[in-house]
Amino acid sequence: MTTVLTRTHLDSLEAEAIYILREVAAESARPVLLFSGGKDSCVLLRLAEKAFRPGRFPFPLMHIDTGHNFEEVIAFRDQRVAQLGERLIVHSVEDSIARGSVVLRAEGDSRNAAQAVTLLEAIEAHGFDACIGGARRDEEKARAKERIFSFRDEFGQWDPKAQRPELWNVFNTQVHAGQNMRVFPISNWTEMDVWQYIQRESIELPSIYYAHERPVVRRRGLLVPVTPLTPPATGELVESLMVRFRTVGDISCTCPVASDAADPYAIIAETAVSTITERGATRMDDQTSEASMEKRKREGYF
């Protein structure tokens, strides 16, 4: 009797991502995996486990901390790193502000874009030549221009017109001193793929990815969480709603969506009928043009 093995689309995406992670480890002198505690980086950690366990990861983990993160996410980040027994490097935007390399107009301003400066400082300090991240091409138009191995010059700048061809998954990883690669193993995944993989692999996530009650105000078509960094404006009505976060970033620019989805199955069902991208529906700093996001990426934004 012949046994027929069927390969699902998740199996194919997983195999591609594991191949890319192993390629980074083999070809780069000093790679690092960016881990924020967000859902995409949690998927990357599971893929790294499959690629390299039972040995240790051939790279440290690193988080660029804005100082304006949700407490639940930072607590989860530290818990997950402790479970893995891996090394976590944290570089803070606060330190860049203290050095004067980051200057904000006001204390409450979003620090999301400012992460680019801190990231470039961290790359230089540690000599990293490849930064592995969880960005996906379906997130927004500027990210759709990225290669899987995305070349940055000695100034940390990205030129979408000067990227290297990747025919037949053959990657050119050569960089000179000061240059580096941003590597995106889950480039070809969608938000739906990520949640289906989370469900299949039983990947633990910060609690704010699932439905919970939270005070919010309605502002420019978004549900803005009420926090000390994002207080209600005069005249705004504070409502207590059941919400969840589709993506997690700086508190000052990240919004939840109304939802009662309390597990991956329910989120997959919601995602299947959603007509708005996760960043378009939840990121105040992405309510701008494609050109604005591309400009930030050219300057070093991940």
Describe the structure using short key phrases.
9 helices, globular, six-stranded mixed sheet, four-stranded antiparallel sheet, alpha/beta, single chain, 302 residues
What does this structure look like?
Helices cover 33% and strands 15% of the residues. Helix 1 (9-27) crosses helix 2, helix 2 (39-52) crosses helix 6 and helix 6 packs antiparallel against helix 7 (264-273). Helix 3 links the parallel strand 2 and strand 3 (88-92). With 302 residues, it is of the alpha/beta class. The longest helix has 19 residues, at 9-27. It has helices spanning 9-27, 39-52, 71-84, 93-99, 115-126, 191-201, 264-273, 278-282, 290-298, and strands at residues 31-34, 61-65, 88-92, 130-132, 149-152, 180-183, 212-219, 222-225, 239-244, 257-258.
Shape call: globular
Instruction: Classify the secondary structure makeup into a structural class.
Output: alpha/beta
Main sheet: which strands, in order across? 3-2-1-4-6-5
Query: How much is the radius of gyration in Å?
Result: 19 Å
Order of helices and strands: HEHEHEHHEEEHEEEEHHH
Largest sheet: 6 strands, mixed
Helix content: 25-40%
Number of H- or I-type helical stretches: 9
Counting copies of identical and different chains, the oligomeric state is single chain
Strand content: 5-15%
Number of strands: 10
Instruction: State mean pLDDT (0 to 100 scale).
Output: 87
Q: Would you identify the regions where 5 or more consecutive residues have pLDDT less than 50?
A: 287-291
Distance between the termini: 51 Å
